[in-house]
Structure formats: structure tokens, C-alpha cells
Design goal:
Layout: E1 3-6, E2 16-22, E3 29-30, E4 35-40, E5 45-49, E6 54-59, E7 66-68, E8 72-77, H1 120-129, H2 147-158, H3 175-190, E9 193-201, H4 203-220, H5 226-240, E10 246-249, E11 252-255, E12 261-263, E13 265-267, E14 270-272, E15 275-276, H6 284-300, H7 305-308, E16 313-317, E17 336-340, E18 344-350, E19 353-367, H8 373-388, H9 390-398
Length: about 400
């Protein structure tokens, strides 16, 4: 019996998948549960297992093709079994050109004929592509236009933008990049996003991180970075202001019980946000281990749906790239996101003295439909209050 292989639904919000790689060739034997192909979804790259044992009779969707959930992409069965009615092989669309095809040229009036010398092949291509041969410079004997001249002309014309600028490279959007574009536009289009900014002295974090590093390394074998510390502090601040940990759905605000903190990780051609589940209930060393594992899987492209689902708040840190401040875009359906800049030593006033201290700009973007500015400010003040109070900071990080 022939079994259909379909694009699986790997998450509630998944609508399509892109074929990244077939792990078996047509005609090869496969076993049920054996890795069959790799697809890229709107969030992750995932391996799809064979739904039955037999032979991969036919592949319908080629690498690069994007199809909706439930689309048939292959057949598994025994050699000689009849396949369903012929279905055309699905191939990825050709990369879109940055410019439209040159417009059809109005023929020269018969009263003023212009004689163009061109080979039959050159004329055929020119007619098919709508090229005016009077604009093409011939390289053949006596200025004869040959096939290569027409192709060169087409390449030059299509290699320009609508403004006439020459295009260096055309980079098709990957499924991940396309999803990021769609979600960010949707986020800005549907939310009333406001960003508030506060600069704070972070010497306490620098000092305590230095003290905890040997302990964390002894217990976990891993280096303590600022990301796990910030996740722990944000989770603590959310305890005081749970409204930050909510969504706006069906015309109602839903405050989420679990505090699941996502942290942005840059990968090739995009960004992923793995999630530390119930961060408010975890010890710092456990968050260190989880962050390290999730970051590794993100770089390797092996994150699972579970790894990236369920986030209720996101932290994005561009400080490592020398960025001081920025306005992060909310990751829907969440209603807030924290942007973290670099730690910068600068003169600050302490009492009646000017001292050199490490400072950092924290940028909180929130959905003004759900919370007001004073609530967002109180949450940000709670966070920086934890950072500036050494005793409280130590208590939270040792909890």
C-alpha cells in the first residue's frame, strides 16, 4: 500500500515548511521512524521521519520548495505499486529578478526601416525576450550581433534596479528570514509599541559575576556570561509585575503563570529565540547550563519546537557588538521585550564625587494597549533597582 509523506504540522502557528534536504534518494529502502528529510519551518529546522517502511517511490517536492502543512511531498511503498494520479514535481521558484523585463519595443515604422545584422539565433532570443536589437552592440564580423551579445545585454539590463543602479548580488529570502520579516512587520502593525530607556551603573553585576565565575565553572564546567544573570534578574522583576508577562488575545489580557524567558541568538541568515522555561524557579547555575545548551543547538540548527515555544518575555543583547542603545521590536504574542546595550566605563556622579563606573543602557519596548507608561517604568525601575542594590542582587543570584 502506497503511503503519502506530508509536510507535518510541528506547532500551532506553523503554516508552511521548506524542503532543506532529502536524506534518502528515490528508490532507496526506508524504515518507519527513520530520518527521511529535513524541513525548515517558521521557527526551526526539523528532521521528518518516514511514516512507513518500504521504498521511497517518488519525491514530489525538491529542495528549496515551500509548501503548506499537509501537502504531499513523496510516496513510500513497494516497487511496482501503482502511484496515485500523476502529480507534477514541485520545484523551488526561480529567484525573483530585481527589475521587470524590459518593455516590449514598438517596431520601427516601415517608412524608416533600420537594418540590423544579427544571426538567426540572436534574433530568436531577442524576439522571445522583447529586446530591441538596435540597442545591442554586435561583437561578430562587421558588427554582426550574435547570441552572446543578446544574452550579455539581458544580463546587464536585468542586473539593475528600477532606479538603474547595478545589483551586486541577489539573495533570495530564506524561510527563516522571510518569517522574521513577516513577524516583525506584523508586530509593528498590530501593536502600539513604545520604548523607554534607562542608563544604569552595572558595577555590581560586573563584580558579582567575577566572584561567581569560579563557582559556576567548578559546578558546570561552563563560563558565566551576562545573559543567564539578566534572565534571572528579569524573571525576579516579573514576579513583582506579572502584567509584563501577559498576552492580548480575544480582546482580553491573559496574564501567564509561567515565566518563560527567551533570549535572542544570531544564526546564519536570521535570528532565533530559544526559551528558558520557568526561569523564576531555576537557580543561576541551572540557567547557565540551559542557555549554553540552547545556544549550541541554535548555532547547529538543531533546536526543537519545544526549545523555541512558550516564551512570555524576550531579552535581546547587542552589547557584544558595541551597541549602546536600540529600540527592540516585540516578539508576538508577547507584550514586552528588553534590549541590553554594552557595558561602558564612563564618568558618573556618586554623591559629590565623579568616578569611573561601568554603565549600561536598558531599553524596554512594551505594548501600550496592554500596559501604560508608568507600569512599564515601574518594571524597569524594579530591574535596575535589583542591579544597583548589591545586597538584593546577591540574594537573587544565590537563590
Amino acid at each position: 500500500m502506497v503511503v503519502e509523506v506530508k509536510i507535518p504540522k510541528l506547532g500551532l502557528t506553523m503554516t508552511k515548511g521548506t524542503i532543506k534536504k532529502w536524506l534518502k534518494r528515490e528508490g532507496e529502502a526506508v524504515s518507519k521512524g527513520e530520518p527521511l528529510l529535513i524541513i525548515e519551518t517558521e521557527k526551526i529546522t526539523s528532521t521528518v521521519e518516514a511514516p512507513a517502511s518500504g521504498h521511497l517511490l517518488r519525491i514530489l517536492a525538491q529542495v528549496g520548495a515551500t509548501l503548506p502543512v499537509g501537502a504531499v511531498i513523496a510516496y513510500i511503498g513497494e516497487p511496482g505499486e501503482p502511484l496515485p494520479e500523476a502529480v507534477p514535481t514541485i520545484t523551488p521558484p526561480a529567484p525573483s529578478k530585481p527589475v521587470e523585463r524590459p518593455p516590449e519595443v514598438v517596431p520601427t515604422p516601415p517608412a524608416q526601416p533600420t537594418r540590423v545584422r544579427a544571426t538567426p539565433r540572436a534574433k530568436s532570443i531577442a524576439e522571445k525576450e522583447g529586446v530591441d536589437l538596435t540597442l545591442v552592440k554586435g561583437s561578430g564580423p562587421g558588427g554582426l550581433i550574435v547570441e552572446e551579445d543578446v544574452l550579455k545585454y539581458l544580463q546587464e539590463v536585468r542586473g539593475r534596479t528600477k532606479s538603474g543602479l547595478r545589483v551586486r548580488e541577489v539573495i533570495p529570502l530564506t524561510s527563516l528570514r522571510s518569517t522574521i520579516a513577516e513577524r516583525m512587520c506584523e508586530s509593528l502593525r498590530t501593536m502600539a509599541q513604545v520604548t523607554i530607556v534607562r542608563e544604569e551603573v552595572v558595577d555590581n553585576i560586573v563584580k558579582i559575576r567575577s566572584e561567581l565565575q569560579p563557582v559556576i565553572e567548578r559546578d558546570t564546567g561552563l563560563r558565566l556570561t551576562y545573559t543567564p544573570i539578566l534572565i534571572k534578574l528579569v524573571a525576579e522583576a516579573i514576579r513583582k509585575f506579572p502584567i509584563i508577562n501577559s498576552t492580548l488575545e480575544d480582546n482580553s489580557i491573559k496574564v501567564i503563570d509561567e515565566v518563560n524567558i527567551g533570549f535572542a541568538v544570531a544564526v546564519d541568515h536570521g535570528l532565533v529565540v530559544p526559551v528558558v522555561k520557568e526561569a523564576d524557579k531555576k537557580k543561576l547555575k541551572d540557567i547557565v547550563v540551559i542557555c549554553n545548551e540552547l545556544a549550541r543547538k541554535a548555532r547547529e540548527g538543531s533546536l526543537t519546537l519545544e526549545d523555541v515555544s512558550g516564551g512570555t518575555f524576550t531579552i535581546t543583547n547587542l552589547g557584544m557588538y558595541g551597541v549602546d542603545a536600540f529600540t527592540p521590536i516585540i516578539n508576538p504574542p508577547q507584550i514586552a521585550i528588553l534590549g541590553v546595550g554594552r557595558f561602558t566605563p564612563k564618568p558618573v556622579v556618586v554623591g559629590d564625587k565623579v568616578v569611573i563606573a561601568n554603565t549600561c543602557v536598558f531599553s524596554l519596548t512594551f505594548d501600550h494597549r496592554v500596559i501604560d507608561g508608568h507600569t512599564a517604568a515601574q518594571f524597569l525601575n524594579e530591574l535596575v533597582g535589583l542591579i544597583s542594590d548589591e545586597a538584593r542582587l546577591r540574594a537573587v543570584l544565590s537563590d
